[in-house]
Amino acid sequence: MLKFQNIGLIAKKKYYRLIEMKDCTLIIPTYHRSNFLSVLLKYVEEFSIDCPIIVADGSTEDYFLNKNKEIINSLKKKNFKIEHFIDQSFFLKRIYLASKLVKTNYCKINTDDDFFSANYIQKAIDLLANDKSIATVTGYSVSFHLNPSNIKKSQFFLGEKENSNFKSILDRFYYSKSNWYPWAMYRTKTFENIFEISKQVTDNIPSSNDFNEAMIFRLLAYTMKTQTLIEGKVKYINKCMNITTYHDSNWGKKHKIESTMEYLLEKNFIESIDKLKNIVIRKNNISDKLIDKLIELVIVNDKHFYKPKHKRNLKERIFNLSISKLINYIKNEVKILKKNHLFVPIDGKNIINFLKKNNFNI
Asked: pTM for this one?
């Protein structure tokens, strides 16, 4: 009798998890990359990721639009809930418009060449549902560099863990290490707030060139970090939030700048920062003094922000010389550890094995 009760309990837990996953919508932005989208949706099918999906397709060429439609319809025929949303506006506005189609309580961005685990989705929803002080849930991230000619020489780098779990708003800003949380799980309301504010903040910047698009991404990052940390805590769980696959057409490479300081003399950027402050003040009913401090912390702690190297005197140089070899040794050992996927938890390993098996040639 006890045996049958246990079987029933296991079945009940599995059913409960299935319902949980259905309460999170995945927004997948894509643009002229049907090959990446195809592998991602194959992963969704193979690992039974039973979340509603919105493919936010910005493709302009008929070939990619038709190919994406074919890939999406193939998954739809297998009873997956997936929607093909076509809009040719830039990334931020397209995500903003896609967020208006979300009907679930939670949502997550997942670009067409990134991967995550079902365990992360389930655990993140559970935390957000049971703790209203949490604004978003992060997990571990992995940078995956596949070597297609020799799979064994592929490289894996574990990213930083973000856990700004403080009651005080100011402490959350002081101790937050990440620039933003683009792949984290959000309540849909918080997600909508972030992209609604970002759209208003960047309306004055035309997405006409790589420099402006990179500026829009930076302002989106500032908005996301600011609104998230004001609304609540950032909670870390040891589940795979994101495996970023690196290749020649990475958006990050296209929109990379040497330093955020390049924007500080741009009129549009300064105007946008002022708009961000004013909108966040109205949205969250906080003081001018506090928002000034919070935005200052966001910008100064931006990892893309230029920080001049400290000029050491001769005495400091002699002292540091004696430990420089030790420091370099430790750094090299850490790199070796980070590159070894044996140190990636099981849910991340499963994704890596899937990518290897499918020869995700990136």
From this structure: 0.83
